[in-house]
Amino acid sequence: MTRINYVAANSTRVSFDIENGTSVMQGAVLSGVDGIVGECGGSAMCATCHIYVAIEQAGLPAWAIPKGGPSEIRRRELVVR
Question: Rg (Cα) of the chain, in Å, rounded?
Fold first, then answer.
């Protein structure tokens, strides 16, 4: 089992232990997380869910952790809300 923390746009947090091998979207749908519908079945086409991974909690090796911020081109693409 893996503990997944879901954070809503209004900062409401819920956590669930999800069976290994289950996608984050499937875990949300199976656990009844509000706002996660999964209409596309997990193919990232319907935009009902967005996933952000806290790099420091992802367990990545040092070489895989991005260094610095986004490039100037990427910075222009980002939408500030």
Answer: 15
